[in-house]
User: Fold this.
Amino acid sequence: MALSLAEKIADPQQGVYLIGTTPPKAGTAADKSLRIAGKLLGRLQQLEYDGLIVYDIQDESSRVATERPFPFQSTLDPREYSRLLRELSAQDVITYKSVAQRDSSEFEHWLSESAATFALKNLVLVGSPSSHGQIKLSLPHAYQQLAAHPASFFLGGVAIAERHAKKGDEHLRLIDKAAQGCQFFISQAVYNAQATIDLITSYARSCKQQGLTPKRVILTFTPCGSEQTLDFMQWLGISVPQASRYRILDAENPLNESIKICRDNLTQILTHCANLEVPLGLNVESLTNRKEEIDASIRLFRLLKALMELHLAEKQVA
Assistant:
């Protein structure tokens, strides 16, 4: 019998290969959502992947003083789109949920509804984008509520290498989140390989010192074909080294250059982390709805999956 996505994530011998996407904008009619989902899955038809990630897009303007390069648009409930994709693709889906906007009783209702109405199984809970503004529910309290809820969820968290580069303690956050129930972590888009290597190395080292088994870290990659997308990545908090930025902007084909950079970054990460006991996974997303960047994300997925499969095969032989 085929393994579920949760079983694959939990088994370090298995590769895990995911596609990230966002729901259609709020107010999209059901028939149009169906067409959008069908178009996405049509693009993915030739790929072998293990599941989908549906993000919960929030207005993060409180986190950054500069203007958002792409205007914020609220989306359909990620649970609706997750259910639609799961039904159409017969693939498992991981659904993101931002918890800061609801109080404890609202979140309790959300959990019950997510299990009963939407049949969600795989969740990633996300805290407030900043300490400014009203936070109705903290991430630790949300973890506590989910742990006490009668429904059974497979819980993941986010891993932010950029935060580790600034504060040096993201690996401790991962250990703490694992103690609160997180079974896996998904990174922000990786453009700074060294920051990611430092985080994974620190995480592996601390787990070994504490006698803990590291959870899987799923690395996210995204193509970038324009200065506006680069600015958007920076606005989101993704670290793009200046040399990589110039490589993309000055290239004859910026999208292809960004794919090469992602390949180089993953190769560096796999090389440096080969002997660490941290199982890795792959997630590829497109940050925009531009057709050329979506098409590039398909090419990127194929390339990076082949790299990761080779790495996994070499580890198993060794």
About this structure: The CA atoms of residues 6 and 88 lie 19 Å apart.
